[in-house]
TrEMBL record, chain B:
Pfam families: DsrH. One of its GO terms (cellular component) is sulfurtransferase complex. InterPro entries: DsrEFH-like (IPR027396), Sulphur_relay_TusB/DsrH (IPR007215). SUPFAM superfamilies: DsrEFH-like. It comes from Cobetia amphilecti. This is Sulfurtransferase complex subunit TusB. It comes from the Bacteria. GO terms for biological process: tRNA wobble position uridine thiolation. NCBIfam families: sulf_tusB_dsrH. Signal peptide: none annotated.
Length: 136, 96
C-alpha cells in the first residue's frame, strides 16, 4: 500500500481535507424520504457554516442518474435538491465507485452533479477526515 | 400461478432470495417501487431464472430515470399491465 493511502488524515493535505459533517446517502429516490432528508440535513449544516461532504453509496448512487421524474404518487424525487446544493456551498460530493459498479453503472452515468469517485481505501479516508458522520 | 410483488431493491436487501425461494415454476415476479432497481442490467445475477416471468412497473422506472437502463429479459408494464397480471394470477403475494 502506498504512503499516500496509509497517511493519517488529520486534515492536512496528505489525503482528504478535513470537514465537519459527512452525510452518507444510502437510499435511492422515491422509495422512501431518506434521500431527501439527508440532502436537507446537508444543506442545513452548510447554511450554518459547517464544512459538509456528501457520500453517495449503496442505492444512494441512483440519485445521480439523469432523467428522473415526479413519482407516480406525486413524490418529488431528489434531483431538484441536488441542483440546490451548490447554492448552499455543498461542493464536496463523492461517489462510492464499488456501488456504481455493482449496479452496472459508470462515471458516465453520473451526470446530475460534479462528483469524485472513491475506491474503498478512499471511502475509509473520507469517513476518517470528517469529524461527524450522519447516515441516511 | 401466483404473482409476486417485490418493492425492495436487490442491492440493499436479501428479500429477493426469499421471493425466489417461494416462487413456483410458473409464478411471475413484478418489480415495483424500489424493487425496480432489480431491472438494471447488473441485477440479473440477483434475479436469475425468470425468463419471461420478470416484470417491472413502467411508472416507477420512469420516475427513477431507469426506463432506458433495463436488462433485456425484463418486461416493462404500466399500471394497466399490473392490473392484467393481477387478473391472470390466482393470487398475489407481496414482499416488502
Amino acid at each position: 500500500m502506498s504512503d499516500v493511502m496509509t497517511a493519517p488524515l488529520a486534515g492536512d493535505d496528505a489525503g482528504m481535507a478535513a470537514g465537519d459533517l459527512l452525510v452518507m446517502l444510502r437510499h435511492g429516490p422515491h422509495g422512501s424520504s431518506w434521500l431527501r432528508e439527508g440532502l436537507e440535513a446537508a444543506m442545513v449544516a452548510a447554511a450554518f457554516g459547517r464544512e459538509v461532504g456528501l457520500l453517495f453509496t449503496g442505492d444512494g448512487v441512483m440519485a445521480l442518474l439523469e432523467g428522473q421524474q415526479v413519482g407516480p404518487l406525486g413524490q418529488k424525487g431528489s434531483d431538484n435538491l441536488l441542483a440546490a446544493l451548490e447554492m448552499y456551498d455543498v461542493e464536496r460530493c463523492y461517489v462510492d465507485a464499488a456501488a456504481l459498479r455493482a449496479r452496472g453503472l459508470t462515471a458516465q452515468d453520473v451526470t446530475l452533479l460534479p462528483v469524485t469517485l472513491l475506491e474503498h481505501d478512499e471511502v475509509v479516508a473520507l469517513t476518517t477526515a470528517f469529524s461527524r458522520v450522519l447516515s441516511f | 400461478m401466483n404473482l409476486h410483488l417485490l418493492n425492495r431493491s436487490p442491492f440493499s436487501s436479501r428479500i429477493h432470495d426469499d421471493v425466489l425461494n417461494a416462487m413456483g415454476p410458473e409464478d411471475q415476479l413484478l418489480l415495483i417501487e424500489d424493487g425496480v432497481n432489480g431491472a438494471l442490467d447488473n441485477a440479473e445475477q440477483h434475479l436469475a431464472g425468470l425468463e419471461g416471468r420478470l416484470f417491472a412497473l413502467r411508472e416507477d422506472l420512469e420516475s427513477r430515470g431507469l426506463l432506458g437502463r433495463c436488462a433485456e429479459n425484463v418486461i416493462v408494464v404500466d399500471v394497466d399491465g399490473f392490473v392484467a397480471l393481477t387478473e391472470a394470477a390466482d393470487k398475489t403475494v407481496s414482499w416488502f
